[in-house]
Amino acid sequence: MKKILSVMAASLMFVLSFATVAGAQDSVVGTVTSDPATVPAAGEYTFTAEGSDFLPDSTLLLGSCTAPGDTLVPGTSTPEEIGAAAGGISPLEHCDVANALQVTTDADGKFSQEVTATIGDNFFLTAGTLDGAQGGAVWIPIVDVAAAGQLAVTGVDSGVLAGAGAALMVAGAGALHLARRRES
After folding, report:
1. Beta-carbon neighbour count of residue 33 at 10 Å?
2. pTM summary value
3. In sequence order, what are the residues at sequence separation of 6 or more whose Cβ sits closer than 8 angstroms to the Cβ of residue 146?
4. pLDDT digits (tens, 9 = 90+) for 29-62
């Protein structure tokens, strides 16, 4: 029972990390990178996740997610397609909330954390605050070793990811509002 409550609490915190900021404040879009930035095949890997451009001395939730939909292809998928894939992530359905890590940024808004995760197609590493005031993500693609001489740029404009997430939250809030109006 205690384990179930822990998983439920972690799930709630992870969902809240994707929530948008209430009011007129703009979200802080941080940068998340990983080393290695690509992997040669699907499987379990340990890598170093680094974040920057977050607020100083803040607590972030760092987690791994798999975006639904068509497989993203390094060098072929556009930043818009990558952003749309990230925007399609539902934290409870597509993220490993039970193994999300809590990290704290330093006085410069940076963090570095070793992470072990099972990486497959459409794998994203995400970081964000519980109130949704900060967020960032990076796609970690599988790149065939034979094509290593032609590695693709794997970064994506975090603004695209944040915008897609905000649009999903607004759509969900609107649907919830309409459902509640119909009930009353």
Report:
1. 18
2. 0.64
3. none
4. 899 999 999 999 999 999 999 999 999 999 998 9
